[in-house]
Specification:
This protein has six helices and four strands, in the order E-E-H-E-H-E-H-H-H-H. It is 41% helix and 9% strand. It starts with a strand and ends with a helix. The protein has one domain. It has a two-stranded antiparallel sheet with strand order 1-2. Strands 3-4 form a two-stranded parallel ribbon. The chain is mainly alpha-helical and 119 residues long. This is Transposase.
C-alpha cells in the first residue's frame, strides 16, 4: 500500500502471501511525486532507490544488514513512518487479512480507505 504523509491510503496492490514487499513497490510509485519516500528495510533495493531518485525524491529507507556499504538515511524524517503504519494498524482485519477471498478483502480495503479519508 502507498500512503501519504498523514497515513491516508493512495494506492494498494494485493499480492500472494509469498511475494516480497519490494516486488510491488515500483508499480505503486509510478506517476507519483513527493519530497521523500519512507519505507522499512524490506524496501532497501538499488532499483527502487533509483526509481525514487528519478522522482526527485529522497529515499528514507534504512539499509539492510547484509548491504556491504550502508546507505545513510535521515533518522528525523524516518520517525514519521509511524504515521504511515497507522494506516495499516488502524484496522486489525486489514493488517492481518482475515478474509480468504480476494474480493472480500479488496472490498474491506476500499471501505477502510474511505473511513480513513473521512476522519
Amino acid at each position: 500500500m502507498l500512503a501519504d504523509t498523514f497515513g491516508r491510503p493512495l494506492r494498494f496492490r494485493i499480492t500472494p502471501g509469498q511475494a516480497s514487499d519490494i516486488a510491488s513497490a515500483p508499480a505503486l510509485l509510478e506517476g507519483q511525486r513527493g519530497k521523500a519516500v519512507l519505507a522499512d528495510k524490506a524496501y532497501d533495493g538499488n532499483d527502487l532507490r533509483s526509481q525514487i531518485a528519478a522522482m526527485d525524491a529522497e529515499a528514507v529507507i534504512p539499509s539492510k544488514r547484509n548491504r556491504k556499504v550502508a546507505i545513510p538515511h535521515d533518522a528525523l524524517i524516518y520517525k514519521h513512518r509511524n504515521q504511515i503504519e497507522r494506516c495499516f494498524k488502524h484496522f486489525r482485519r486489514f493488517a492481518t487479512r482475515y478474509d480468504r477471498r480476494i474480493i472480500h478483502f479488496t472490498g474491506f480495503v476500499h471501505l477502510a480507505a474511505a473511513m480513513i479519508w473521512l476522519r
